[in-house]
């Protein structure tokens, strides 16, 4: 049994040094880290701490997004006895500074985006950039490093030679997690090594019972969307997966289509997220079915599947399961209670929806659902090693080794438990005879009616969510003479009648629970915390002002907020006579949004509201009001582009190799044997590369492939007009039967023998860029024609700004090329050219620094091609 989290980490990560531990997005590509690499980075970070004079008990602020380096920094601090102060990536700089001052931090470890501001305000405190954490120059292993033992004699830990021995036990502080204090003085929860281990150990014992079955699905892959700065995110992203030898994929993108794409592409087994994400995925599936005219049929089959065997339901809904991939089987939801309707939806489709309950003060987990023995609607049973009871008013009280040491406040450490050792959670719950716990809501949110009866908002929200018109809802109490009445604040679909929705929901409730007050929320989504919980205090304030007859709570347009964030310009949106944002403001003329700004804006809106707006519709949006309506009613006409993964694998790769040498190369030499110049620039270059070239005609890819050496030519993915390619893949309904067969045959031959993939000219190219990143991960170079269309006068058209975005996010060298002589042949109406008449020039590969300006990159690339 480990005596510290450091010992647990080193033992677990040493067992499988070459297996993948973490994957994360790096632009459009995936970056992978093995268990051995993370372990070495953590041990190497110990040396960094030593160089900054950080020792046992010193506080280190860790501020950045989820990444393998964040994990390494956390465990590096644990090994050295330093106390981690994790900060949410979205926390304000002011809050982070106040926390740092309160804990008297001696070191900041922060991401590059936070580093500049931190350096300016940190004073004498040292700063380490998270992205610069690397493994030591010489690999740390039992042969190369001095093997040492912890002073308590707990085993061989292979610590770096330069770092001194430290005695770390269960009672030593591991981290201080600040969960509140954005407006008041920050208050942090002090967690020890023992607190964390007390929660790991019962779960580890239960998980080891199933390890004999795990080898059949190894590795179990977790897609973790929870922030590692939160304790629940740490358990599912850092502490539990190594026990299974699992792989954790870290992703910030929470757009439903992107989540589904990652699950399918990376063969994810388990999604770890908040309830809001499960709700958004459910809404996407229903929206897609509605767009295809299949929603009613799905709902009928959904009703008929009730009570049927798991395998039968698996077969009934196989089309939906195919979208997630066959290895995916479970959701783990935390951070808030999952509503019964969403839980039942996923259960009916054959997925396990596992809930856990806990707070930061209890080191996350108090109860958890067993993945194979789910208690429907419950938040699970109490974990071994802790006690749970209900107070007279239903409040959940917890006692055990997982309960925090205390609160770290400005005037010292304060206890979190009462005299008998019970922690009062502030949550109200129920217990059934089988020991399942049911969450009823926050004690402070309980609505006490004038009759003295308690109403739990969760019950009312569950009734509202059964109504199909309800997109989301929050029930708050409106003050009535010292008591309160429930008020439903609603986000509705399709401008539904709120009164009718509430009346139908009331029929499912007892008389004293019924709602007689309701309001529509004026924005597409509620304000939310970083863990996607609605900010009930702001919603209650809005409702109270409405019923007092006051003015609306000021609600700045979400589009305006994001436009100002993207452009870096404040106050740019025109206003009307009343001073409100003018929703008729033109996105291009009035707001000055460039095409690149529009790409970033749609990404930000989709990420913020967890929806797929449909890029064709977005391309048609002209005003701020258009975008607001799209957020309120996502969907509509959308063009779906297809990116088949099979073309990048055997046997398509063999067929393509044969076609290349038996058909395409002979055809190019017959058309006009090209003279190739600049091949010396590719000596020692093997790829992957982003290849760019001027665009003259449809035969351009053949000449580019011919010019490239075989090691690059044979693994080349080619971007082509997405609209034209999709018409072949999905012919129009009025196309004849023979015409459809002909079109689809052309599509199959194009994507398999030429490795074509769609790059839409007008909208939809972000998914194309993501596919280019996936191809690069598999070792393919990517050919793109940045002009987007053929030249009509022999001169190069301006490069589209998206090429700068693509080059930045792929992070691979860019190879400029240019074709000469082909336009003159085309203008003369000739089909064949004399040998050497057509020339293909190859430039030197260009590497751009990380975070380069995409617009400047596009200009530099145009100059590079133009100079050839």
Task: Give a written overview of the molecule.
This protein is α/β, with parallel strands linked by helices and 868 residues long. The protein has five domains: 5-13 and 33-193, Rossmann fold (3-Layer(aba) Sandwich), CATH 3.40.50.980; 212-400, Rossmann fold; 446-547, 2-Layer Sandwich (GMP Synthetase, Chain A, domain 3); 558-632, Non-ribosomal Peptide Synthetase Peptidyl Carrier Protein, Chain A (Orthogonal Bundle); 645-866, Glycerol-3-phosphate (1)-acyltransferase, CATH 3.40.1130. The protein has 31 helices and 33 strands. Strands 2-1-10-9-11-12-13-14-15 form a nine-stranded mixed β-sheet. It has a seven-stranded mixed β-sheet with strand order 27-33-32-28-31-29-30, sandwiched between helices. Helix 1 packs across helix 3 (68-80). The longest helix has 21 residues, at 652-672. 43% of the residues are buried. Mean pLDDT is 84; it is low at 137-157, 159-164, 551-555 and 570-582.
List keywords for this structure.
Rossmann fold; 868 residues; alpha/beta; 5 domains; nine-stranded mixed sheet; globular
Report the strand count. 33
Q: What is the level-2 CATH architecture name of the largest domain?
A: 3-Layer(aba) Sandwich
- Mean pLDDT across the residues is 84
- The count of domains is 5
Helical run tally = 31
* Quaternary structure: single chain
Terminal-residue CA separation? 66 Å
Task: Fill in the CATH topology of the largest domain.
Answer: Glycerol-3-phosphate (1)-acyltransferase
Specify the helix fraction band. 25-40%
Outline the low-pLDDT stretches: 137-157, 159-164, 551-555, 570-582
- Note the beta-strand portion: 15-25%
Reading side by side through the largest sheet, how are the strands ordered? 2-1-10-9-11-12-13-14-15
Largest sheet: 9 strands, mixed
CATH level 1 class label of the largest domain: Alpha Beta
Shape: globular
